[in-house]
Amino acid sequence: MPKPISIGIIGDFNSANESHLKTNAALDHTARRLGRDLQRTWLPTLELEQAADRMLFEAYDGLWCSPGSPYRSMDGALKAIRFAREQDVPFIGTCGGFQHVVIEYARNVLGHQDAEHEESSPYASNFFITRLVCSVFDKTLTVKIRHGSRAHHYIGKEEIAEYYYCNFGLNPECKDALDAGGLRVTGSDADGEARIVELPDHRFFVATLFLPQQSSTPEAPHPLILAFLEAAAAFRTGEKQIGTAG
Question: Which residue of 1, 136, 192, 227 could cross-link 243, Cys pair, CB 3.0 to 4.6 Å?
């Protein structure tokens, strides 16, 4: 009997936050579709900030950075994202998770130590995450996916409709630098603004500004979540799992 897949969810769980409940439900029904048991644990960001490196994170086959920012500790969330990126741990980030993936990469890979998020640091001078010109809060909109990308492989389509619940996204002025620096923008809206980013050479590292958990159902799990759990299931074997297109 295979061991349960163990997923750590980076974020400050709130039972009144529908996106948190949807995250739990999507993980549960996707694991059932794979015929696997699942253990999921919410990892409060203040505890992550204080945790010793590796001791906490190494318990998990995959990490998911949840919606719900600003987090109680941005440093705790960034620490966990960095661990997943550097240690090749399967990772997905959604909504606030997308935003903090960008901040972590800008600071620790691109060298912008002052990279900030406009929501949490409104008076900073170097915003990689800014308020969207056109809010996508509580909207379902089209995402165009770059052909040949990992996201395209997982989803199996070049255009999808997805649900959003946020007002902040990648600063358009930073898109080219981020993409050229290795965190590839592989999904965009009709105006070319980033909606999916990924690390092509990582085992599984994808972040979406939209909420795939919102449309995931027991009958049709979202293909990104399915691919994430497939990668997590393969993690302890050392196998590189590319995922299954939907």
Answer: 227
Which helix or strand (DSSP H or E) is residue 190 part of? none
The second-level CATH assignment, the architecture, of 5-235 is 3-Layer(aba) Sandwich (3.40)
> Would you give the DSSP letter of residue 173?
G
Kindly list the domain boundaries of the chain, sorted by start residue: 5-235
Q: Strand pairing of 91-94 and 62-65?
A: parallel
Contact 219, 47 (CB under 8 A): no
Q: For residues 163-201, b (16+ Cβ closer than 10 Å) or e, as one string?
A: bbbbebbbbeebbeebeeeebbbbbbbeeebbbbbbbee
Can you give the pTM of this predicted structure?
A: 0.94
Task: Give the C-alpha separation, 166 to 201, whole Å.
Answer: 28
Closest to 196 measured CA to CA, from 181, 175, 213, 215: 175
User: Nearest 5°: phi and psi at 62?
Assistant: -160, 155
pLDDT 10s digits, 138-169:
899 999 999 999 999 999 999 999 999 999 99
